[in-house]
Design a protein that fits this description.
The complex is a heterodimer of chains A (about 290) and B (about 750).
Chain A lengths: L6 E3 L4 H11 L3 E4 L5 H6 L7 E4 L9 E4 L2 E5 L4 H6 L1 H6 L1 H7 L5 H6 L2 H7 L5 H8 L3 E6 L2 E6 H4 E3 L2 E2 L6 E7 L6 E8 L9 E9 L5 E9 L6 E2 L1 H7 L6 H11 L13 H27 L1
Parallel strand pairs in A: 1-3, 2-3
Antiparallel strand pairs in A: 4-5, 5-10, 6-7, 6-10, 8-9, 11-12, 12-13, 13-14
Chain B lengths: L12 H5 L15 E7 L5 E7 L1 H4 L4 E6 L19 E2 L5 E7 L2 H8 L3 E6 L6 H4 L16 H6 L19 E9 L2 H7 L2 E9 L11 E6 L5 E5 L4 H12 L6 E5 L14 H11 L3 E4 L2 H7 L5 E10 L5 E11 L7 H11 L5 E9 L14 H19 L3 H8 L18 H9 L2 H4 L6 E10 L6 E7 L5 E5 L7 H13 L6 E5 L16 H28 L6 E4 L2 E4 L2 E7 H7 L11 E6 L7 E11 L6 E11 L6 H20 L30 E6 L21 H13 L5 E2 L10
Parallel strand pairs in B: 1-12, 8-27, 10-11, 14-15, 18-19, 25-26
Antiparallel strand pairs in B: 1-5, 2-4, 2-6, 3-5, 7-15, 8-13, 9-10, 9-12, 13-14, 16-24, 17-18, 17-23, 20-21, 21-22, 24-25
Helix pairs in contact in B: 7-8, 10-11, 11-19, 15-16, 18-19
The chains are: A alpha+beta (about 290), B alpha+beta (about 750).
Bound molecules: flavin-adenine dinucleotide.
Chain lengths: ~290, ~750
């Protein structure tokens, strides 16, 4: 179907966009890559009265290093992230995660800001950002603020973003040397939303023991889940099959992913556990080979 | 000249892959208006009232029509063009909005407010059959037997025994019985007793349903539709409008995928609307509407008891099954019963099949209707039996296979079939014989299709430049026109690029069969061959006169008719055509007709081999190899036959991988977009090795049999059998639940 009627603005600058957002707030929607919004509009599940198209705002489209951090402009496309050399070097978790997003055509249009603002609990990038302790720069006519990922993601498709606010950029801290990362997920067909997935970051100490482990899960709850207790459990541990298995069991303790046609809650818990095991194992191997 | 049997590219292939093909939605007409449907969102309800005020005043609206505004149409209540007083399923068309643009129609349709009084809903077919279940259909809305026979597998085998009392919501019962099943099962050495089920699935054509109509000045109607059956549409439209058949002209458009789901759907409604407004109209469904409105393949469930002697000889089969037909009377059961009883020799059987109605979208034929269901149950049960008997599954099938002269599915003696050849070929196929690696399993399953046939005709004209135009009234949904062109080229004696198959509108086309039931080449091949031979005869008749030579001494070479062995004696074909078409010409024009009526079916058999490996933690499986061995009688265009088989295999496997029409308790479809309705994708499929067996049909044109339907049949059982052998876990429900294969 085609969407219901809407008004359309195409601001050329961030300021213009913020003006329009301040004026129309609740009645309007920002459109970035349109890969989530347009299907919703075509199904008429979303009927925004006005679209503010931010595709022409060049100042939002960049990926750069700033003081060691990676800063990704909201309008950077998935493809851009996927192929950025500095990202592959410094934040390979993002390179690995973004490859799982939909199909090439979708990644050519879809944006980092859109993925974050859309807050789909099955989306890859929010979980990867959770694992990386990313922060989001939000801007409105009222001013700017920077919020951490766990303040930002509230629930399914719900964020801390105010109606007049724009996601401007994502800030990702640098990883320590000797760190290994991995992103794994299970979907029945390539490009489908994951039924369960995990991002892991492992830092090994000189003694080969785990100095720091980070585990973030997708499709595990209404928002990305950080398995803090499991992370804690691995600190100082020797990473082998049994410690990884135990931590993965801990990681899914208490989770109740929603049962649906594609999998029951029990099945999804098992998938999440398996994905956590696989992500930790891979991340540990990568950490070991980077230190050796 | 050898054209038939040698691979040729599809004549229309380049235009299809380059996106140039003109589909119905690409055609415009001056003053064309657009129709948008308002669909019921209730599964069972009375319509208390419809508020059209807001919609009527929306911009661009020309007319808004409800069921009450249309003349009465002779159809069961759920199948009226627009609901009258009551709705029976979610997705039933209730109101039609006609507007100047598609978007105006959609915007106005969203303003229509229908007031429903919900009634009790019957969604689960098992509950539907219980005493006291709410009645889905009005009484006496009986099965339409014509529908089954249209797809080439109608049953006329006798239904023995007293018909049992029909349970609630059962429109008809299939009963087939031979011998003493009870006693035979008691004395069997091995018995498999299990329940197998398949979800309903959708045809999922790439092109959504669309139709365009224009009222004509003489009171007639022209219809443009991507239909598999232009003559079916014509007859239906003439009937509903009460006008003579000749006043309806159906222009067959390129079919962007049909698979049984594109015969007629929207045309009755559209022509009634067009007559009312006096304007040309187009209605194209959105993908979501296709899922809700366009009829799908029924879900089915089978309780099977299959018994055999220690040596594998089958002794008895008991099957009790039902089809979930949605809000219509069904007809798949008869076909299914024939496959269950007529594929293998089995002295005793007792088959009871129920056609159940529920508050869902009515069902329709889908590629080999009734066969994937029958063979999933039968071939799974046989595999379980082979495991119990510790017997090779192909040996077990060979032991019980039917052959020429045995009673076939329809009870009549079988002609020469190639069931055994297919099984034997599978037995020596490397995918079957190669040892399995750790965690891998190999499974096989057999399938068949009886085959349809319909009398057919074709015309053939030789054009002034020496090319041939072959006129047919049957559309090409499978590459069949390329095969027909090859037959014409070879029969007449011209290269393939000199032949065009012209699928004309029903006003001028020679009568041709529905493109369904694997019957197009089988039914039309002979007519096209005869037409081309007759055109050749007419041409040579003229040449005989001009060259003063006997017709048997003439041949057509490089655009000339020459006298065999006399190099200098020839006449250009173009000249002969000119003499039979030009002003003051002296010969009658070359205008040939060919006709055929194939007298018997040529049952088709196929065996599939699947190899799988599973991931014990996620339960996911991956095919590591797949082969399809199929008897096609004679492959007219071998790559096309293989292409049909590739497509059929994938459609069949889709039922196992994840395709399903899942409904909630309110009768709402939960899989109404391709996000949730899981079509198979390339990453799920290995290379498919196709092996064509050619055991010529005694009656089909040039020995050909049908091709299109058998490959869609055995896949689900083949993969499920392979999985059972790889994991020891038998899953008896489709689509296959991955969680069942998890072993930690
Ligand atoms: C077939 C298909 C498969 C897909 N598979 C996946 C998948 O596997 N994994 C996955 O993660 N995603 C998947 N997607 C979604 C895709 O990644 C989307 O592109 C992404 O989620 C949203 O990005 P977008 O730029 O397209 O946002 P849009 O669709 O333009 O917008 C999405 C939402 O975010 C808001 N928004 C966008 N940008 C901003 C901003 N800068 N500030 C404030 N609000 C903003 C919009 O108002 C809207 O509410 C799939 C999409 C399709 C069509």
């Amino acid at each position: 179907m085609k969407p219901a009627q809407f008004e359309y603005d195409d601001p050329q600058t961030e300021d213009e966009a913020l003006d329009l957002l301040a004026r129309h707030g609740d009645d309007c929607k920002v459109i970035a890559g349109g890969q989530s919004l347009v299907p919703l509009m075509n199904f008429r599940l979303a009927r925004p009265a006005r679209l503010i198209d931010i595709n022409r705002i060049d100042s939002l489209s960049y990926i750069r290093r700033e003081e060691g951090r990676l800063v990704i402009g909201a309008m950077a496309r998935h493809t851009h992230l996927e192929h950025a050399e500095e990202v592959a070097q410094g934040w390979p978790l993002l390179t690995e995660a973004v490859g799982w997003v939909g199909h090439a055509q979708i990644r050519n249009r879809g944006t980092i800001g859109g993925s974050v603002a859309h807050a789909d609990p099955a989306a890859e990038l929010p979980a990867a950002f959770a694992a990386l302790d990313a922060k989001f720069q939000l801007r409105s006519k009222r001013g700017s603020r920077t919020v951490s990922w766990d303040e930002f993601f509230v629930s399914e498709f719900t964020t801390a973003l105010a109606p007049d606010e724009l996601v401007a950029a994502v800030e990702v801290p640098a990883l320590d040397p000797g760190t290994g990362t991995a992103f794994v997920e299970y979907a029945r067909r390539h490009g489908d939303f994951a039924l369960g997935g995990a991002a892991a970051i492992v830092k090994l100490g000189r003694d080969g023991r785990c100095e720091r482990a980070t585990i973030a899960l997708l499709s595990a709850g209404p928002a990305p889940v950080r398995a803090k207790a499991a992370e804690q459990q691995l600190r100082g541990a020797k990473l082998d099959d049994s410690s990884i298995r135990a931590a993965s069991a801990e990681a899914v303790r208490g989770l109740r992913p929603t049962s649906d046609l594609h999998g029951s809650t029990e099945y999804r818990i098992g998938l999440l556990r398996t994905m956590t095991e696989r992500a930790l194992t891979k991340a540990a191997q990568r950490a070991a080979s980077s230190t050796s | 000249m050898s054209i038939v049997g040698v691979g040729h590219r599809r004549l229309e292939g380049a235009e299809k892959v380059s996106g140039a093909t003109r589909f119905t939605d690409d055609v415009d007409l001056p003053g064309l208006l657009h129709v948008q449907l308002v669909l019921s969102h209730q599964a069972s309800a009375n319509i208390r009232g419809i508020d059209l005020d807001a919609a009527r005043s929306a911009p661009g609206v020309i007319d808004i029509v409800t069921g009450a505004d249309l003349p009465s149409v002779n159809a069961p209540s759920p199948e009226k063009p627009l609901a009258v007083g009551r709705v029976f399923y979610v997705g039933q068309p209730v109101v039609a909005v006609i507007a100047e643009s598609q978007s105006a129609a959609a915007d106005a349709a969203a303003l229509v407010d229908v007031d429903y009084e919900p009634l009790s809903i019957t969604v689960d077919p098992v509950l539907a059959m219980r005493d006291g279940a709410g009645r889905v259909l009005d009484a006496d809305e009986e099965a339409d037997a014509a529908d089954a026979s249209m797809h080439g597998a109608g049953t006329d085998s006798e239904t023995n025994g007293a018909t049992p009392r029909r349970p609630a919501n059962v429109s008809s019962v299939v009963n087939l019985k031979r011998g003493d099943t009870d006693a035979a099962l008691k004395s069997a050495d091995a018995v498999v007793k299990a329940t197998y089920s398949l979800a309903g699935v959708h045809h999922s054509p790439m092109e959504p349903h669309v139709s365009m109509v224009r009222p004509e000045p003489d009171g007639g109607m022209t219809v443009w539709a991507p239909t598999q059956g232009p003559f079916h549409v014509r007859d239906e439209v003439a009937k509903v409008l009460g006008i003579p058949t000749y006043k309806v002209r159906v222009v067959p458009m390129a079919v962007g995928g049909g698979f049984g789901g594109k015969v007629t759907l929207l045309e009755t409604l559209l022509v009634l609307l067009a007559r009312r407004t006096g304007r040309a109209l187009r209605l194209n469904l959105t993908r979501q509407q296709v899922f809700a409105v366009a009829r799908s393949a029924p879900a089915a469930s089978f309780d099977i008891e299959l018994g055999a002697k220690r040596d594998g000889t089958l002794v008895a089969l008991r099957a009790r099954f039902h089809y979930d037909n949605g809000a219509t009377a069904g007809w798949h059961g008869g076909i299914t019963g024939m496959f269950l009883t007529g594929t293998y020799q089995c002295p005793n059987f007792e088959i009871t099949g129920y056609e159940v109605s529920t508050n869902k979208t009515p069902v329709e034929a889908y590629r080999a209707p009734g066969a994937p269901q029958a063979y999933f149950a039968l071939e799974s049960a046989l595999d379980e039996l082979a495991l119990q008997l510790k017997m090779d599954p192909i040996e077990l099938r060979l032991r019980n296979a039917t052959r020429e002269g045995d009673p076939g599915p329809d009870g009549k003696p079988l002609p020469r079939i190639a069931m055994i050849e297919c099984l034997e070929e599978a037995q020596k196929h490397p995918l079957y014989t190669k040892p399995c690696v750790e965690g891998e399993g190999v499974g096989i399953a057999l399938g068949s299709w009886g085959g349809a046939r319909t009398p057919a005709s074709a015309g053939c004209r030789v054009e002034p430049d020496g090319t041939l135009t072959v006129h047919v009234g049957t559309v090409d949904v499978s590459g069949s026109s390329t095969g027909l062109a090859m037959i014409a080229a070879e029969s007449f004696g011209v290269p393939l690029d000199k032949v065009r198959i012209e699928t004309s509108d029903t006003g001028v086309a020679p009568f041709g069969p529905l493109a369904a039931g694997s019957q197009v080449t089988y039914s039309m091949g002979g007519a096209v061959q005869e037409a081309a031979l007759e055109a050749r005869r007419q041409l040579l008749e003229i040449a005989t006169n001009e060259l003063e030579a006997a017709p048997e001494d003439l041949e057509i070479v490089d655009g000339r008719v020459t006298v065999r062995g006399v190099p200098g004696r020839f006449v250009e074909v173009t000249k002969l055509v000119a003499m039979s078409t030009e002003f003051m010409g002296k010969y009658r024009p070359i205008q040939a007709t060919g006709r055929s009526a194939v007298q018997a079916a040529s049952p088709m058999f196929t065996v599939h081999i699947a190899r799988v490996r599973t991931d014990a933690e996620t339960g996911e499986f991956q095919l590591t190899g797949y082969a399809a061995i199929q008897d096609v009688g004679r492959a007219i265009n071998p790559p096309e036959a293989m292409g049909q088989i590739h497509g059929g295999v994938v459609q069949g496997l889709g039922r196992a991988f994840g395709e399903q029409l899942a409904y909630n308790v309110d009768g709402q479809l939960r899989t109404s977009s391709f996000l949730d309705y899981e079509l198979p994708t390339a990453d799920q499929l290995p290379d498919i090795d196709v092996k064509l067996i050619e055991v010529a049909s005694a009656v089909g044109p040039l020995g050909a049999k049908g091709v299109g339907e058998p490959p869609a049949v055995p896949g689900p059982a083949a993969i499920s059998n392979a999985l059972a052998r790889a994991t020891g876990i038998r899953v008896r429900d489709l689509p296959l639940d991955r969680s069942a294969f998890v072993r930690r």
